[in-house]
Amino acid sequence: MALFFLVAYLAMACPLMALDVGQSTRCVAIPRHMKVCKDAGYSEMRLPNFLGHSNVDLEVVPRSEDWRPLLQTGCHPEAQAFLCSLIAPVCLDTFIQPCRSLCLAVKHSCAPVLACQGHQWPEALDCDRFPVEEDTCIAPFTKFSHFGKDLPKPACQNCPSVEQGPAMKTVLDAFCHHDFAVAAKIHHRRLPLGGPQFEIEGRVEFIRQGPLLPYDTQHVLQQWLLINLQCAKVLVQPGRSQLFVLTGFVESDGTLALTHLFPWHKKDAGIAVATRKWKHHRC
């Protein structure tokens, strides 16, 4: 996430609205290795872009990668459209800026993710800099307030407690007192190489399903790791994987909150016995 702020500082050095949109510009193909915007819905971009970048290989592509960690959190379904409209403006007769409404929608959902990392929304992306009239700019395509409203969603939270080698009773009590309990293996990439720093490996095994959805849980847990990056970093060493039993709640607003994490090692008889007894356990 620190890479994201390198872009922000560069943008402050070349403010968005200070760009002379009447200056000489050119259209170039969006390169295939520019993965952040390669599927943005158009194939050519106009340079210099709104961040003042002109060189594709030395500026545009490397700086576009700096935004990848934020996009991987899934903080807003139109975050890519907003960011790519600045990094790789669509090649039309004139520059088309994002609308203020699009900026505000993305900021509303993504600024809390940045705050979770201890940072503020970059001043260079002040939404007041963008036009209000939606017929002259890129407007939101969806109403995010209704997007996935019935699905549990991850959010920034205080780090859950991690208990090594718990007793069987401790694990069973955690199963009883929480909405859900799952077993999942967390992998910490040594080098991201363009991928997410943390991944859920293999299938998520449900111990107590509660309000979780089988087809969505793995994705939600992985997004939780990417949003709560500082919490995730203390769970698994880089280049390693670790199996955990995770328990938590789904709040009334649909927010998923993890409360207890139990690293599950082969020697942990308490967890193994608790998972076997759970089917017949009475809380």
From TrEMBL:
Cystine pairs: C103-C127
InterPro entries: Frizzled/SFRP (IPR015526), Frizzled_dom (IPR020067), Frizzled_dom_sf (IPR036790)
Record GO terms (molecular function): Wnt-protein binding
GO BP of this protein: canonical Wnt signaling pathway; cell differentiation; determination of dorsal identity; developmental pigmentation; negative regulation of BMP signaling pathway; non-canonical Wnt signaling pathway; protein stabilization
Gene Ontology, cellular component aspect: extracellular space
Domain named FZ: residues: 22-140
Source species: Betta splendens (Siamese fighting fish)
Protein name, per record: Sizzled
Gene3D superfamilies in the cross-refs: Frizzled cysteine-rich domain
Similarity comment text for this entry: Belongs to the secreted frizzled-related protein (sFRP) family.
